[in-house]
Structure formats: structure tokens, C-alpha cells
């Protein structure tokens, strides 16, 4: 393998010097210095030409410099002939190379140096200074290589090379992305240290007065002689020391030792979805009174169970899980992980009332779990979308025999300290669920899971747990003519996970009298933001059947944003929630999906390239059904009316309202009442069918005759101007932070133009860059990485990333015939 040596160097002298420290942190947590440092900056990247380069690099290879995380597929063009197919977003995979040179301080030659990749999609192979470190096929799980034996120290360069092969397509049922798409770290430790993912903290007994804390720590000795050491674990609440425990150990040369410590926390502050309180355990290893290693573990103290009759109980309180399923891509940013982008998604979902996240259908980025810990979400952490049997030709089933145990163990060890995780899922819609082989595999996976974590229940997304003809469900239950899914009936699972089959939920206790319920995946309602069919009270099942090509639908591959279109295996949003909310024994649900995602554009195929399932679109703009959930899932007072009020004169329009905390709502057109409406029975919305008359649509909600809220929608004139609104006007100058800027197309009076689809051009001044543009249109083939984009229903999004200098970023948006707009973002 021949490569050029003249790429930019990056020195680890400074960061290596900051890894170790002599002062104990048992007095104050902020004395802790992380032993791992970011290794994301200044990589060189090359995407092979499949014909010319094949799978090699050489002296003539052309490189470009970039920072990781990086997804090369999102930079490409949408292609109907892409081997990934429309299911994979019609974007290309391919084979890419990354390399980086760096230096390591001479004094670190006596230490252990490792490199950690949080995720590389997929089939990664790594070399350091020409030495082959290994291969990892799974793109979603992190892995680490020790590189100590192969390093050059002092002034000599080191070179790391990563080959990423995502050329065999399709290997996923959704958009995967390609490349080093998660963070990379260099970790430097003493030869005596806490191992990778080396702590396991549980709280076996929790009361309001006292919590017992069990700490299992894996100590690794890579010295050639045995070592005597003192291990102290100190528990902090923020910067305040809570308690500590100390133990002396002797560990043999080149050996691992598991140390078990116990502590008690008086009057613990319990983790909950409303108040996600966290503790930190800092483990110190001392040799001759000198700290040689420190390792930090964040954890939470909470008590929970899934009860057969009462559902999910958290800290003694019944909590209905109001969750959504999420894929890993970040819309226009692709699969390249960014903490702020994940945080924004979670903020939008939290505002809707979501309290649960399912990581469908793979281990998530560590940053997602950290944020769920801090923000209060009930996480279902999922391992696999397939076992031995393929769903697509080149997927993980081909790697199952060699890798599944290692990948599962690594996921469990990596994730098991997160207080936000309340259940493990060992699979999603696994074909083997229907046979004995599947039960055999499930038993193996369950044994592995319980070996590494006994504190959380095990489930799987089964489609469905009860094998039945859904159209004849009532008749079947009357005849008691149902058969249980073999996996569901095997006794392997602690929770029966329902994917869809909402008609069977109410019969759960009859079918599974010993095992609690969780709806692992529900609904699959479909909408295009801002588009409305003329008649809203007819339910449409698109496609007609999952295995038949859909030949109907709307012009432009649109789907009505009234909650009226569902898949044949799913339901409308209202239908499933009505059932879940009714019964205590139904612990909760994870709706498919929280956000739209790239790929899987059900019910359509090309030219659609992203999904219609989201409650929030690909750009992060809520669809109307968002407010149905908000009215049901939060204590906020909600009043939301739709659609827009730009139609043809005299056209009949259905007007819907979602509301809460009120007895009735009254609708006015240009000041004239067109009637009062109240929700009856289990209704979740009200409707008026009225002729369009240009002007103002106004709705008032009242309780006991008193006004609660008022909302108006006005008929917009011709598009006239652009308005820019940033989610945050001040961001960090760290080359990572993001400002998400909404572009609204307005008429001369400031009313949003709901049918405007102007092309908007963007320019940016200052130390930063535009990293994403999007409108949420599933049919758009414009690049997410460009400087222009066409609006959908009067809205567009542009994402600006900071540079490494403080200052001002000026973003200007222009469109033909419209008044331009500029916004200033401060970086500091």
C-alpha cells in the first residue's frame, strides 16, 4: 500500500500531556480531566472511482481534507439507478478511504494508546503505520483498537488509514449513509487502568430515603509484573461529593480483574422523565498514592417495573410511554452525527409531549443516549433488524455467524449505565420469529443480554405477536381462533413487543396472561406537510398491500396532511392512541416515526426519496398531527387549526381543530360564526366543512363560557418577502455547533404564503459554513449540501455551522421577485 506523506500533520503532544494528572478528584468533580480526546479533525478522504481505483490507493490518489464525522453518500446526487434503491434513499454507497498523520509525545511511550471509532458504515478496515488492526462489518456499533505497539514517538509521524466499503448494495431497508459517520477518539492511559466500557453501575434497591449502588469495575493491568493499587470510587451530584468507597487490590501481570464495590446514597434524587437527575461516579486507581487513572461514569437512580395490569411504573408512579421510533439520519445532514442536531430533534419531540425513543433498528450514537439521559426519555435500545435471514441481499445477515455475539456484547457493555434505557430489543420484525430456529437464536441472545445486564426487560418487535387475519379480528376472538407467534409464546421475552396489530391490543391479557405489553412500533400514518386532500373524513390505505406496487396516489407523490392516510398494516395516528390511552395495562407505544427520514418513501417509489411517516418532516417542521399529540400528551393549552386558507372561491374545505383544556371551539369566517364544535366520546379533533371565502379564519376555544385561546389564519397574497428565524442566534465557535434557520415566504403583510415554492439562494459571510438545506419535500432531488433549495408550502431550512473563531455570521437569503433577508448569528 503506497501513500503520499505530505498531508497535514496533527500533533497529540498537547493533548497527551493533558490526559494525566496528579491531584485526586475526590473533593470536587470538576478536577477530572477526560482521558480520551477527540480525533475528528484534519482527516484526508478519497472516494474511489469503482472502475479506475477498484479498492486500492496509491501515489496518484487525490485526497481532500475534512473533519469527521462524515457521510459521503449525502454529498452525492439522487439516482434512480442507485443500487441502494429508493428504500436506501436513491443515494450511492461506494468505497472510501480516510487517512490522517499525527504525532505522539515521547513521554507517552510508556503508556497505552488506543483509537476508538463510535461507528463506521460499513465494513471498515484499519491500519496504523502499515500494521493491520482489523475489520468490523457492523456500521452501528463502536469498536476500539490498541495501537501502542505500532506507534512512533517524538518527532516521527504516525499514519492511520481506514478503508470503508459500502459498495455492496442494498444492505439496508433505509438510508444508511457511508463513512466514518460517528466520532473518533484517541485514548491514552497508564498500563494499569479501567478497561474500555469498564464500569457497570446498578441500583439494586431504591427508596425515597436510601439507594444502594453497586459498582462493578474491570481493571486492566498491562504491566509485566503484578501491581498493588487502591481503587476509590466517588459518587458526585453535580460538583458535590455524595459518598465514596475504597478498596485495595493486587492484580497479576497482563491480567484483568473485576472489582465489586457497594455504596449507599442517602435521600437520593431520583431520575424521571420530568426531572432527569444524574449522578457521576469517578473511579480512581492509585499506586503509591499517585493517581494513575481516572474513569467517569454517569448514571441515574430510579426504580421501575413493567406491571401486567398497570403498565410501566417509574419510581412508584404509573407512566404511560408516549414514544416515537427514530432512525439515525439527521435529515439534510445525513448520517454524520452532530450532537446539536440530535438535541434539536429531541427538543422538538419533547415539546410535542414525547417521553420515549426507540433506536430503530440498531445501536444508536452514544450522544443520543447521553442526551436522553439528560433530557428524560424512556429508551428502547435495539440491537438488530435481522438475524441469519436476509431482508436485503447484502445486509448484516451475511455477517451474523461471525459477529452477532461480539456486536451484542459490545452494545450491552457500552450502553448499560444509561438511566434512560429501560428495555433491550433483540430484534425487529425478524423473519425467524415464526420458526423454531428463531426461538433458538432468541434464547441465545437473551442469555447474552441477561449475562451483561439483569436490570432491564427484554423484548422484540414482532409483527404481530398474535398471528391472525386482522380484517376478521372480532370474529376470530369470538371463536378464540388465534395462534400465538412462536417467539411471543416461547417465554424468552419479558415484554411482548407489538409491531402494529392495534386491533389485538385490548385482548393482550387473554393472549399473554403472564407477560406485560409494550407497543414497539405503531401507526405508520402518512402525510406530506402542507398538502391536503379535498375530503378529510375518508380513511385511505396506501399501498393496498405491502407486497404490491402502489399505482394510485396523488399527483406529485403527495399525501394528505389530514390524519386520514395509513398503511394497510398500520392505522391513523388517532386510532392507535385512542386504544393505548384507554387501558392501564397497555404500558405505552412507540409511533413510527418521530421524524421523517431518508429512504423508504412508502407508499411511493421513485421519484420519492424520503419517508412520509414522520410526525415532523425531514427539515424539522411539524406536520399538523404534531398538535394532536401535543394536545393529548402535554399539559400545554393547545389550539391548532388547519389547513391554510388559500383556496379557490367557493371551494369546499374541511377545517380541523386540535384543542384541549376547553369544552368547545367556535369557528369564524371573516367575523361570522360558522358553528361551535365539541369533541364527543373519544374524539381527538373537531371539523367544519365550509365553502372557502378569502379573508380571515378564526377559532376560539372556551371553557365554562370563558375564552381559553384564539387562533387566526389569513388568506395570503402574492409572495413578497423572506423571513429568517434562527433557533439560536448565538452558537459556540467550535467548528461543530449549528444554527437551524427557518425561511418563511411571506406576502406583503407578513402572512405566510402556503403555496409558495420559490427557489431560495443562500450566501454566508464570516467564519462558518452552510452545511445543510432542506424543505421537507420527499420528492425533492436537490442536494442537501448546496447553497440553494426550493421551499415546500412556504418554508425552507438552512443549517449554518460555526468555524473556530468568534465573530459574526451573516446569512442572506434571496429569491427572484422577493425581498431578500439577512440574519446575524454570533459565534463565541
Automatic annotation (TrEMBL):
Indicate the segments forming the Glycoside hydrolase family 2 immunoglobulin-like beta-sandwich domain, all copies: 201-302
Keywords, sorted A to Z: Glycosidase, Hydrolase
Q: Where is the Glycoside hydrolase family 2 catalytic domain?
A: 310-475
Q: What domain of life is recorded for the organism?
A: Bacteria
Which residue range or ranges hold the DUF4982 domain? Answer: 650-708
Q: Which InterPro entries match?
A: Beta-gal/glucu_dom_sf, DUF4982, Galactose-bd-like_sf, GH, GH2_Domain-Containing, Glyco_hydro2_dom5, Glyco_hydro_2, Glyco_hydro_2_AS
Q: Does the keyword Hydrolase apply?
A: yes
Glycosyl hydrolases family 2 sugar binding domain residues: 93-186
**Record domain Glycoside hydrolase family: where:** 722-823
Instruction: Please name the PANTHER family in this protein's record.
Output: BETA-GALACTOSIDASE (PTHR42732), BETA-MANNOSIDASE (PTHR42732:SF1)
Family that this chain belongs to: Belongs to the glycosyl hydrolase 2 family.
Can you name this protein? Beta-galactosidase
**Natural source organism:** Flavobacterium anhuiense
- High-level lineage: Bacteria, Pseudomonadati, Bacteroidota, Flavobacteriia, Flavobacteriales
Amino acid at each position: 500500500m503506497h501513500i503520499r506523506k505530505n498531508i497535514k500533520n496533527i500533533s497529540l503532544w498537547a493533548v497527551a500531556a493533558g490526559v494525566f494528572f496528579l491531584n485526586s478528584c475526590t473533593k470536587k468533580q470538576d478536577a477530572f480531566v477526560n482521558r480520551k480526546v477527540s480525533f475528528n479533525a484534519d482527516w484526508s478522504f478519497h472516494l474511489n472511482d469503482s472502475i479506475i481505483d477498484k479498492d486500492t490507493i496509491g501515489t496518484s490518489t487525490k485526497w481532500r481534507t475534512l473533519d469527521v464525522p462524515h457521510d459521503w453518500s449525502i454529498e452525492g446526487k439522487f439516482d434512480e439507478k442507485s443500487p441502494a434503491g429508493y428504500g436506501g434513499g436513491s443515494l450511492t454507497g461506494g468505497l472510501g478511504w480516510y487517512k490522517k498523520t499525527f504525532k505522539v509525545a515521547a513521554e507517552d511511550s510508556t503508556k497505552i494508546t488506543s483509537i476508538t471509532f463510535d461507528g463506521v458504515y460499513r465494513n471498515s478496515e484499519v491500519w496504523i503505520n502499515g500494521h493491520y488492526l482489523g475489520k468490523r462489518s457492523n456500521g452501528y456499533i463502536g469498536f476500539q483498537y490498541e495501537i501502542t505497539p505500532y506507534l512512533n514517538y517524538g518527532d516521527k509521524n504516525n499514519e492511520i488509514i481506514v478503508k470503508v466499503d459500502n459498495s455492496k448494495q442494498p444492505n439496508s431497508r433505509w438510508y444508511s449513509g457511508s463513512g466514518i459517520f460517528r466520532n473518533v477518539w484517541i485514548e491514552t492511559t497508564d498500563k494499569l487502568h479501567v478497561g474500555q466500557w469498564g464500569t457497570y453501575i446498578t441500583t439494586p434497591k431504591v427508596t425515597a430515603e436510601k439507594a444502594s449502588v453497586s459498582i462493578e469495575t474491570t481493571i486492566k493491568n498491562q504491566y509485566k509484573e503484578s501491581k498493588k493499587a487502591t481503587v476509590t470510587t466517588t459518587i458526585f451530584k453535580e460538583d458535590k461529593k455524595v459518598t465514596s468507597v475504597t478498596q485495595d487490590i493486587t492484580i497479576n501481570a497482563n491480567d484483568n480483574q473485576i472489582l465489586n464495590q457497594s455504596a449507599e446514597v442517602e435521600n437520593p434524587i431520583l431520575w424521571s422523565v420530568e426531572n432527569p437527575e444524574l449522578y457521576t461516579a469517578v473511579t480512581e486507581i492509585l499506586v503509591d498514592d499517585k493517581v494513575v487513572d481516572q474513569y467517569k461514569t454517569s448514571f441515574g437512580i430510579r426504580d421501575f417495573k413493567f406491571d401486567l395490569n398497570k403498565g410501566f411504573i417509574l419510581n412508584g408512579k404509573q407512566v404511560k410511554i408516549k414514544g416515537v421510533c427514530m432512525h439515525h439520519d439527521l435529515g439534510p445532514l445525513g448520517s454524520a452525527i452532530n450532537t446539536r442536531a440530535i438535541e434539536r430533534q429531541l427538543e422538538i419531540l419533547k415539546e410535542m409531549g414525547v417521553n420515549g425513543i426507540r433506536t430503530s433498528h440498531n445501536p444508536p450514537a452514544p450522544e443520543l443516549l447521553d442526551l436522553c439521559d439528560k433530557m428524560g426519555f424512556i429508551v428502547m435500545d435495539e440491537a438488530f433488524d435481522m438475524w441469519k435471514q436476509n431482508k436485503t441481499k447484502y445486509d448484516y445477515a451475511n455477517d451474523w455467524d461471525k459477529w452477532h455475539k461480539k456486536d451484542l456484547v459490545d452494545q450491552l457493555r457500552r450502553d448499560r449505565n444509561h438511566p434512560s434505557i429501560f428495555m433491550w430489543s433483540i430484534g425487529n420484525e425478524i423473519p425467524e420469529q415464526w420458526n423454531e430456529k428463531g426461538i433458538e437464536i432468541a434464547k441465545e441472545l437473551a442469555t447474552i443480554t441477561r449475562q451483561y445486564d439483569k436490570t432491564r426487560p427484554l423484548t422484540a418487535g414482532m409483527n404481530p405477536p398474535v398471528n391472525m387475519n386482522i380484517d376478521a379480528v372480532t370474529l376470530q376472538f369470538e371463536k378464540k381462533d388465534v395462534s400465538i407467534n412462536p417467539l411471543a409464546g416461547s417465554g424468552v421475552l419479558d415484554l411482548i413487543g407489538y409491531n402494529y396489530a392495534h386491533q389485538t391490543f385490548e385482548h393482550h391479557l387473554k393472549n399473554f396472561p403472564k407477560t406485560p405489553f409494550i407497543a414497539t412500533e405503531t401507526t405508520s400514518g402518512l402525510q406530506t406537510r402542507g398538502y391536503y386532500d379535498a375530503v378529510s373524513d375518508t380513511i385511505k390505505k396506501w399501498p393496498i398491500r405491502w407486497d404490491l406496487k402502489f399505482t394510485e396516489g396523488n399527483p406529485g407523490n403527495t399525501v394528505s396532511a389530514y390524519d386520514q392516510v395509513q398503511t394497510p398494516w398500520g392505522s391513523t395516528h388517532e386510532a392507535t392512541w385512542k386504544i393505548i390511552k384507554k387501558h392501564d395495562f397497555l404500558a405505552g407505544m412507540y409511533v413510527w416515526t418521530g421524524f421523517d427520514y431518508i429512504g423508504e418513501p412508502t407508499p411511493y417509489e421513485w421519484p420519492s426519496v424520503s419517508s412520509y411517516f414522520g410526525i415532523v418532516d425531514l427539515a424539522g417542521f411539524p406536520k399538523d398531527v404534531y398538535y394532536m399529540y401535543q394536545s393529548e400528551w402535554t399539559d400545554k393549552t393547545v389550539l391548532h387549526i388547519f389547513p391554510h386558507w388559500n383556496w379557490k372561491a367557493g371551494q369546499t374545505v374541511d377545517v380541523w381543530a386540535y384543542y384541549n383544556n376547553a369544552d368547545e371551539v367556535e369557528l369564524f369566517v371573516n367575523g361570522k360564526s360558522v358553528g361551535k364544535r365539541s369533541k364527543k366520546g373519544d374524539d381527538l379533533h373537531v371539523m367544519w366543512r365550509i365553502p372557502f371565502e378569502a379573508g380571515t379564519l378564526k377559532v376560539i376555544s372556551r371553557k365554562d363560557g370563558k375564552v381559553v385561546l384564539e387562533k387566526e389564519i389569513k388568506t395570503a397574497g402574492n409572495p413578497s418577502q423572506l423571513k429568517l428565524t434562527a433557533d439560536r442566534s448565538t452558537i459556540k465557535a467550535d467548528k461543530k455547533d449549528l444554527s437551524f434557520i427557518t425561511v418563511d415566504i411571506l406576502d406583503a403583510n407578513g402572512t405566510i404564503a402556503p403555496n409558495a415554492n420559490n427557489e431560495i439562494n443562500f450566501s454566508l459571510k464570516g467564519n462558518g459554513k452552510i452545511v445543510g438545506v432542506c424543505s421537507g419535500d420527499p420528492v425533492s432531488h436537490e442536494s442537501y449540501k448546496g447553497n440553494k433549495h426550493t421551499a415546500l408550502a412556504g418554508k425552507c431550512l438552512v443549517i449554518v455551522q460555526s468555524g473556530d473563531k468568534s465573530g459574526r455570521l451573516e446569512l442572506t437569503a434571496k429569491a427572484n421577485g422577493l425581498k431578500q433577508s439577512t440574519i446575524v448569528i454570533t459565534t463565541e
